[in-house]
């Protein structure tokens, strides 16, 4: 049986609040003790509560005094380095959440463009449904994708050579890679795609359903199929709607 999620909110019932305080106080002191023993550190705790007229300390007044004095000897900048109040904690959480959202949007965009690329490769896409801006971005994405595939193929061919394959077979495999890498690419900088606005693709690229974690679950068999085609038929793999200069054919 799964444990019910605890609702973190103020307990209005006085007796229940006091009972919860006493139980969690004991657990808190126990955790500090375990931390100090397992990690060999100096630790202390001071708790003020409406249920006691004097503060409760752990492990003892003398030990708490030693830890506090040692802390006060540290420069102020070091003391405040990892301090955070409630507002600061919320701001950190908001910033982290925004960064995660931006990353997921970029991941979804990249996967949606991969799906669109494979649709065109299989002759199922319609370039006229995309705007000029989206076609240009898709061409950049394809350029970078092909560069990565050619680099991957080059590594595989070098690995085959190390295992005793003939150099003539390796040259036949790597020659198209040299043409693609030295040709007129519209994406000389691999990081250029990172400057695109990810929000513009959410409604313009199809084939990107919502998943539980916000990431589109791409069928990786497509990539394996393309790598296989490039390895076995290097001179026949091309995008039917694009020529060697990555422009739409008339």
What's the short story on this structure?
With 250 residues, the protein is an all-alpha fold. Helices cover 55% and strands 2% of the residues. The model is unreliable at 172-218 and 240-250 (pLDDT under 50).
Helix/strand-derived category reads: mainly alpha
Shape: elongated
Q: What profile does the largest beta sheet have? A: 2 strands, antiparallel
Please report which band the strand proportion falls in: under 5%, 5-15%, 15-25%, 25-35%, 35-45% or over 45%: under 5%
The helix tally amounts to 7
Q: How much helix is in the residues?
A: 40-55%
Q: Kindly, what is the distance between the CA atoms of the first and last residues, rounded to a whole number of angstroms? A: 64 Å
Q: Count every beta strand, where a strand is a DSSP E run of 2 or more residues.
A: 2
Low-confidence stretches: 172-218, 240-250
Rg over CA atoms: 30 Å
Instruction: Kindly give the count of domains.
Output: 2
Average pLDDT, rounded to a whole number, is 74
N-to-C SSE string, H for helix and E for strand:
HEEHHHHHH
Task: Order the strands across the largest sheet as they lie in space.
Answer: 1-2
């Amino acid at each position: 049986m799964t444990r019910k999620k605890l609702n973190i909110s103020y307990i209005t019932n006085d007796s229940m609040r006091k009972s919860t305080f006493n139980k969690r106080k004991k657990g808190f002191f126990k955790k500090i003790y375990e931390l100090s023993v397992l990690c060999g550190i100096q630790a202390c705790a001071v708790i003020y509560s409406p249920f006691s007229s004097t503060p409760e300390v752990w492990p003892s007044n003398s030990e708490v005094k030693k830890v506090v004095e040692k802390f006060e000897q540290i420069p102020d900048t070091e003391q405040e380095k990892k301090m955070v109040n409630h507002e600061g904690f919320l701001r950190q959480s908001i910033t982290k959440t925004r960064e995660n959202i931006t990353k997921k949007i970029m991941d979804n965009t990249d996967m949606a463009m991969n799906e669109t690329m494979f649709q065109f490769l299989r002759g199922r896409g319609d370039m006229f449904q995309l705007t000029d801006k989206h076609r240009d971005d898709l061409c950049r994405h394809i350029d970078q994708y092909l560069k990565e595939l050619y680099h991957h193929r080059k590594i595989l061919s070098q690995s085959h050579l190390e295992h005793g394959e003939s150099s003539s077979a390796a040259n036949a495999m790597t020659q198209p890679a040299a043409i693609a890498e030295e040709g007129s690419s519209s994406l000389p900088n691999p990081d250029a795609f990172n400057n695109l606005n990810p929000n513009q693709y959410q409604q313009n690229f199809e084939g990107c359903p919502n998943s539980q974690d916000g990431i589109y679950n791409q069928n990786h068999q497509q990539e394996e199929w393309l790598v296989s085609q490039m390895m076995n038929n290097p001179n026949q793999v091309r995008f039917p709607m694009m020529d060697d200069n990555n422009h739409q054919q008339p």
